[in-house]
Amino acid sequence: MKNRSKKILLLEDDEILAQTLEQILKSENYDVALASDGEEALDFTYENKFDMYLLDINVPLLNGMDFLKLSRDAGDKTPAFFITALRDIDSLSKAFDSGCDDYIKKPFDMDELLIRIKSILKKRNPTIAYKYIKFDLYEKKVFKHDEEIALGNVEKAVFAQLITNVGTTVSKSSLLDEMLKPSDLALRVLINKLRKMLNIDIINLKGVGYKLEKL
Question: Does the predicted TM-score (pTM) go above 0.70?
Fold first, then answer.
């Protein structure tokens, strides 16, 4: 099942703080790539797609603001969060001008940092609506008439593919990849369960895949 963790690029040159942040973020099920200077962080972005940048400002070679400005100039809209010891208004103004979504001042409370990270990621991963169904992409929750429907992780993963591709046929192989024990029969049973629980029409294109009709 492809329920991937959110991927965070952490740019921090303080080794102890970097390791502490890395451990805490991983304990919260985030996938963390750690860079100790701005150029290393830039190299990471050439090879990977991230869900968030968590950036110290004063780091070697290329500071956090310049890293983010270069990324934004290249069309990169990845949410960015500064962790900084800077406190003057001018520096904070420049931080937002460079394209950050939020910041927190050192020293900071780890729980507050996690709450803010979750908030930013949720804003960038909005709820998708289809008829009377709502699907929260961040919390992975499905609602019918605003009441949460108890679906399993595999069912949510399959439905996520359908609702994020409304009007387009999702291939059978792509849906099977979401299953722990994939088979044509198991997929048909799962689709029928979604139809009944959500009371929606999921169209079967024989031998090709399934889709939700565009409204």
Answer: no
Q: Are residues 184 and 87 in the same domain?
A: no
- Cis-peptide, bond into residue 107, ω within 30° of zero: yes
CB atoms within 10 A of CB 130: 18
Please report, for residues 16, 130, 144, 153, 177, the alpha-carbon distance to residue 135 in angstroms, rounded to integers and kept in the order given: 39, 8, 9, 13, 20
pLDDT in tens, the chain (215 residues): 444 578 889 988 888 888 988 888 888 888 888 888 888 988 888 888 888 888 888 888 888 888 888 888 887 788 888 887 766 666 666 666 667 777 777 777 788 888 888 878 877 667 888 888 998 876 778 999 988 988 988 898 899 889 888 888 989 998 998 888 889 999 999 999 999 999 999 999 888 899 898 87
Query: 73 and 174 share a domain?
Result: no
Query: Which domain covers residue 177, as residue numbers?
Result: 127-212
15 and 109 belong to one structural domain? yes
Domain count, the chain: 2
